[in-house]
Task: structure prediction
Amino acid sequence: MTIQFLLIQVFNGLVNGAFYALLSLGLAVIFGMLRIVNFAHGALYMLGAFTAFALGQLLHLGFWPSLIIAPVIVGVVGMLIERGLLKRLYGLDASYNLLLTFGLTLLTQDLVKQVMLSKFAVSSAPYTPPDSLSGVVNLGFTMFPKYRLFVIGLALVICLITWFVIEKTRVGAIIRASTENPGVTRAFGIDVSKWVTGVFGVGVGLAGLAGVMAAPIYSVDPYMGAELIITTFAVVVIGGLGSIMGSIITGFAVGVLAAIGAALYPPIANTLVFILMAIVLLVRPSGLFGLPEGTR
Result:
């Protein structure tokens, strides 16, 4: 394996890692505050891509407006889900949340499928990136698509901004306080329930953003999030449930390792991340960056 080949695989892996990082970051934000494993995260990722496609078809909005509007719409949908459905299950066994979000996944996928068939007469559709991001860039060792470099850069910026807000600002302090001791937080006059709704909206909004970014690469398909979300859950477990930085680092790292592993030995491509997860859980059950349960 030459250095050139290795570098090409690293950049290909960083593209997939960008989506893993954004999705796992959203899951980590939601789990960190609500202790909810949101199985509908993949469907909401798909909803972001579909919303961008629908905005282009119905309102003739291009990629740049959709990159802002679609995640906001998905975030609002997420807040409605939290307020209308998930809020009723707080305090119950976690299996109820899992079953509800799994049901929402099936419902969302079938609904989008029916809308695409009836309204747009397609079962899946390509989504064109903006002209400003078309073409390739000479990296010295290969010609790499400009749009994919944009995906890597934007995902990294969004992930770092999210980490900074949660770890270094007053907003993040309120979120962490609401997570660790909601009773005391309420005593200071803070409406914890509104913060919970907002955090859930931001978490699924990140999934919607990833969906818009993924649409020009993978096209818009009702089931585009089904396989990706399984890998994303593995990334979250490896990084540590609720760990923001762990999700970011692990997301990009898993993308790179999977790309290199697939190039060296293709049959292992779909199982490498789960082998890694099993090893990490055996050595460190709380994940690479997670805190043991008793220290949270």
Notes: Residues 3-34 form the longest helix (32 residues).
